[in-house]
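Retro notes (design track)

What went well: tokenization of the new backbones is finally stable.
What didn't: we kept losing track of which sequence belonged to which structure.
Fix going forward: every design gets posted as structure first, then sequence, in one message. First example under the new rule, 146 residues:
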């Protein structure tokens, strides 16, 4: 047996055992809580704001932030979100929702970095959502870009 193979055996053992050690953690994944979803949305929105301030295209910024949120929910929570129910969402469903969350969050945190046409759509959607729930207090409207 070669000297290299004998010396690398102790290094390979932990790599072989790693999937066995991580398996119980995956089995314990719980649906994302509203607090976790709020955190993920905030992280995505901040990333949109930072990338926009650095001159990155809005669509690309939102796409990357949305993909980050979707992959996080899929990896940490197996695609399950408490507010949605017991069904795990597909990656496509997660992406759609995550992109919407990133846009809404950016509209709130850094409205100057959101294109005017997108801000109008966000404000219209917020108004429509408030009108759909009679008796519900009017939702906070993101500040208009200056």
């Amino acid at each position: 047996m070669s000297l290299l193979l004998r010396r690398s055996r102790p290094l390979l053992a932990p790599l072989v055992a790693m999937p066995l050690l991580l398996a119980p953690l995956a089995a314990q994944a719980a649906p994302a809580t509203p607090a976790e979803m709020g955190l993920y949305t905030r992280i995505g929105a901040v990333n949109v704001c930072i990338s926009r301030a650095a001159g990155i295209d809005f669509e690309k910024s939102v796409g990357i932030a949305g993909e980050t949120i979707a992959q996080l929910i899929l990896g940490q929570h197996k695609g399950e979100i408490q507010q949605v129910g017991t069904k795990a969402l597909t990656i496509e469903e997660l992406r759609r929702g995550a992109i919407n969350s990133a846009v809404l969050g950016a509209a709130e945190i850094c409205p100057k970095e959101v294109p005017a046409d997108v801000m109008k759509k966000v404000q219209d959607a917020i108004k429509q959502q408030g009108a759909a729930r009679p008796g519900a207090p009017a939702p906070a409207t993101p500040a208009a870009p200056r």
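Added context from the reviewer: Residues 20-24, 136-141 have pLDDT under 50 and may be disordered.
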